[in-house]
Hints:
With 97 residues, the chain is mostly helical.
Amino acid sequence: MSEEAGSENHVVELTTSLVCAYVARNAIDVSALPEIISSVYGALTALNAPPAPAAEKPIPAVPIKKNRDTGRDHQPRRWQTLQVAEAPSQAAWPHAR
């Protein structure tokens, strides 16, 4: 028995046990049973599927500038804010009273 067939049997067994447990605790129509079985089976096979391949790193349309001095990527400078000087104390300006 191959590994794939063993996995398929396991999925069928899980589907059977899940649907039996659901039907035992819930009142459903007989006509809804095939839809429930196919829904559970589809969900379990989707979980068993191999993951999708990882997306490749996108290539920029325009090459990124490198700084000649440091060799790092170009990053814009941050704006420098002006610092407000503190108000002079009254002791420094005795005649200002």
